[in-house]
Amino acid sequence: MLILNKISKKLGDFQLTDINMEIPEGTYYVLLGRSGSGKTQLLELIAGLNVPDKGEIWLDGEDITNKGLQRRGIGLVFQDYAIFPNMTVFGNIAYALHARRTDKKVVSERVEKVSGELSISHLLGRSIQHLSGGELQRVALARTLITSPRLLLLDEPMASIDASLKDDIKRLLRQLNSKGLTIIHVTHDYREAVSLANMVGVIHNGRIIQEGIPDQVFRKPVNKFVARYSGIRNFFRVEFREENGVWSAVSKNKVVIGLSGSFYPDEGLLIIRSDDIKISPMRPDSGSENCFRGTVIDILPSEFGMEITIDAGETYYVDISSDTFRKYPVTVSSEVWITFSPDACVALDSKM
Amino acid sequence: MNRYGPFNWILLLLSSLVLLFIVAPLTGLFLHTGAKELFETAGDKTVQDSILLTVWISFAATLFFSIAAVPFAWLLARKKFPLKSVVQGIIDLPVVLPHTAAGIALLGFISRDGLLGKAASLINSRGGIALAMAFVSLPFLINSAKDGFSAIPERLEKAALNLGASKSRVFFTISLPLAWRSIITGFVMMFARGMSEFGAVVIIAYHPMIAPVLIYDRFSSFGLKYARPAAVLFIIVALVVFTVLRLMSEKRRSVDPKDENADS
After folding, report:
1. Which residues are within 8 A (CB) of B131 and not within 5 positions of it... i.e. 6 or more apart?
2. How far is B217 from chain A (nearest CA, A)?
3. Closest-CA residue in chain B for A159?
4. Which secondary structure element, helix H or strand E, spans residue B71, and what is its range?
5. What gap in Å lies between CA A18 and CA A9, rounded to an integer?
């Protein structure tokens, strides 16, 4: 269990303020925040690269606030991996063991083992110059995992690897977590939170403004920022299916939503951003777009105009600008049509 | 033909003049020295000893001082402390001081009444020469090593600490190897600068005679004609040593990793 108790830290013009966190063992915690929100700084405090001005950090019942970073047993994988350029892949992975003066035979055994698990055994003798982003990331992970950390901290692990490798790395991270490793994963991408986390925190301007299980955070954002930032109040658990090469998603309420693209998993999450949905008072000429009739449940002014809640089989949240609202005013319980393109639907495989 | 506009011609002319200014006296020196004189001087035991002495004292002084100067450079590159800019200024001081003034200052320090002189007499000794050489040339090593350390992303050191390495281990396995090229460059520069030092050394030790003092001695006692071959010989030796060391550090560069691979 990791506990942060009223952590504050001033860093130049920026400040982390009154951070409280409780992360039980085995949790996959995704910390969501824009760049400059303080998420990396928070990771560095937990890892011990910096010491907080105020507050305490506890890990498994031990106060580690002022403990040296060498002795914390917390593994940190940097965003750019920080691979040592003066060593081979083997040298990088073995570094922590060499620092512990481990027996040579044990070192090579353990390096073999961890690199096997991460499928990088074939890279061991190489220098790091010509490795790809994905390979570097695996080396960084192996280098950290070989220390058997009590807690794994990942700074934007998906930021600099090819899209095609993201699923691989997600699978790997899920696997590590399912073996009991507690992971804190920092990202700006809500999709990673949805597909990996069993706990989500949203950080903004150095404060944690919301925390909870993903469903809670995304469906009931505490404020407009979280709603806007996560941007995904419209997400439905769906089954994917294919008919004559055309894919669609079927929600729990049996709403069928047309998709573009192909090769979806059996089930997962479907996300539609609130500003990708259009509203019209009459049935529009929708063409290939998804088009549903619904009833307005709620209208709330938002930072960006109006947020309209519509029941159309599922509950949709739609953002429209003030201008649009003035031109086409809608009222609560009036009937409207919503349309959105199949391209606007983001499918996520959320099986844990 | 924009590329050869008047501005470029002027640039070319000015650059050539500067280059000529450096090359011409040296070329003149070589042209005025006959092969016979050169060989005679090369065979002169006094000259041989003097050049050898200069090279090894400068090398030893550089090596000795680098033991303390390199960690100091790391400190300057990594840590913030009060009066850091003052410390930085003090390090650069020997570069701006007239070297004879530096020699006088050192002399007071190592003379019998001075702080160090009480322990051992260094005047007219190899130790004294080494101190004088180091005094004026240390900034080159410190500044170059400092630049090398500053160029290492701090994250690499932090990552090593995070993996459980001690601070000294991080210094020897990460910081030092990655700054190696700059340290060697600084080493070569300090070595070369020490070898060519005259002003500070001549005040501390006229004897044993290092090469720059010997050249001066021959010039003032016998005139230009006798000083010239010794000067040429010393320049040749200095160039050879300098080139060899440069090549060695270049070779290192080719095996050295470019930079960090990551996108920061």
Report:
1. B61, B106, B110, B122, B204
2. 49
3. B263
4. helix B45-78
5. 9
For residue A294, the model assigns a pLDDT of 92
Q: Is the pLDDT of residue B259 over 60?
A: no
**Closest CA–CA distance from residue B240 to any residue of chain A (Å):** 30
Average pLDDT, integer, range A9-24: 92
B257 touches chain A (CB under 8 A): yes
Alpha carbon of B156 to those of A41, A90, A101: distances in Å?
16, 16, 20
Is the confidence at residue B125, as pLDDT, over 50?
yes
Chain A residues with beta carbon closer than 8 angstroms to that of B259: 85
- Alpha-helical (H) ranges within A161-249 are 163-178, 190-196, 214-219, 224-230
CA-based nearest residue in chain A for residue B161: A70
Q: Note whether A86 contacts B177, CB cutoff 8 Å.
A: yes
Read off the amino acid at residue B212: P
Report the predicted TM-score, pTM, of the whole model to 2 decimal places.
Answer: 0.77
Whether chain B has a CB inside 8 Å of the CB on A76: the answer is yes
Per-residue b/e over B142-152, b at no fewer than 16 CB within 10 Å?
Answer: bbbbbbbbeeb
Report the residue of A93, A95, A147 to disrupt the B interface, i.e. the one with the largest count of B CBs within 10 Å: A95
Task: Give dist(CA B99, CA A39) in Å, integer.
Answer: 53
> Does residue B260 surpass a pLDDT of 60?
no
ipTM at complex level: 0.78
Q: Is-contact A135 A120, C-beta < 8 A?
A: yes
pLDDT classification of B111: cutoffs 50, 70, 90: confident
Give me the residue spans of the domains in chain B. 35-263
The pLDDT value recorded for residue B120 is 67
- On the question of pLDDT at B128 being above 70, the answer is yes
Residue with tokens 């650059």: B15
Average of pLDDT values for B148-166? 95
The whole-number average pLDDT for the span A214-223 is 73
Percent of chain A with pLDDT over 70: 95
Q: Which residue of B has its CA nearest to A80?
A: B262
Q: Residue A336: is its pLDDT beyond 60?
A: yes
CB contact under 8 A, A85 and B162: no
A12/chain B closest Cα distance in angstroms: 14
The residue ranges of DSSP E strands in chain A, in sequence order, are: 2-11, 14-23, 28-32, 54-59, 62-63, 74-77, 151-155, 182-187, 199-204, 207-212, 234-243, 246-251, 256-258, 267-272, 278-280, 290-302, 305-312, 314-320, 335-340, 345-348
Query: Is A128 an 8 Å CB contact of chain B?
Result: yes
The CATH architecture that domain B35-263 belongs to is Orthogonal Bundle (1.10)
Q: What is the pLDDT of residue B257?
A: 44
Give the C-alpha separation, B69 to B61, whole Å: 12
Query: Which residues of chain A are within 8 Å of residue B173 when distances are taken between CB atoms?
Result: 84, 95
Query: Mutating which of B149, B157, B163, B169 best tests the A interface, going by the most A Cβ atoms within 10 A?
Result: B163
Residue A70 to residue B165, Cβ atoms within 8 A: yes
User: A35 or A286: which carries more pLDDT confidence?
Assistant: A35
Q: Which two tokens stand for residue B139?
A: 């900034």
